[in-house]
Write a structure and sequence with these properties.
Elements (H helix, E strand, L loop, with lengths): L1 E5 L7 H15 L4 E5 L10 H11 L4 E7 L7 H9 L2 H4 L4 E7 L7 H13 L3 E2 L4 E3 L2 H4 E2 L2 E2 L2 H16 L1
Parallel strand pairs: 1-2, 1-3, 3-4, 4-5, 4-6
Antiparallel strand pairs: 7-8
Length: 165
């Protein structure tokens, strides 16, 4: 099972729009992917709702796509909190992950991608080397869809590599 995590709880974010685009392009490759948006995340500690999330989504997923906006030179704290309260060995160990950074700045959350790579390695996750920083994300989306050919090619290439990974 593949799962995209839209790693912000900000309502109406570009992160969720990019997540939906990735889901669309995975579907074009014949791969069904679920999206879990942290807009819906409300656990501050491991409660019954979080344990259900672990059992129904995190534990069964073998390949994750983390779509992460840039927050203060890294990624959102709500995403780190979700990972911190999880059963790390059951949810994350030895799973595969593809990283995508999004930002309205020029670096596409490169620092956040590096930080998450280090965290994933600590949690024994296998990270696809092709980590895509999407810069000026507001200019990359028209009617909530990617429209620039270079971006479309980069996204499709990354997805194909991840399917083979």
């Amino acid at each position: 099972m593949y799962t995209i995590i839209s790693a912000t709880n900000r309502k109406g974010s570009n992160t969720l729009k990019v997540s939906k685009e990735y889901q669309h392009y995975f579907s074009e490759e014949g791969v069904q992917v679920r999206i879990y948006s942290l807009e819906d995340f409300h656990s501050m500690f491991k409660d019954a709702d979080f344990e259900r999330l672990e059992e129904e989504l995190l534990i069964p997923t073998q390949k994750f796509v983390f779509i992460m906006p840039e927050y203060n030179g890294s990624f959102p704290g709500i995403f780190k909190l979700m990972m911190d309260i999880s059963d790390i060995t059951r949810c994350w160990f030895h799973k595969k992950v593809m990283l995508v950074g999004v930002a309205n700045g020029r670096a596409g959350n490169l620092r956040g991608l590096d930080n998450m790579t280090n965290m994933c390695h600590y949690m024994k996750m296998n990270v696809l080397p092709n980590k895509l920083p999407i810069s000026s994300v507001s200019n990359e989306l028209k009617d909530e869809r990617f429209y620039q050919e270079a971006t479309l090619n980069a996204v499709r290439n990354q997805i194909r590599q991840f399917i083979e990974f």
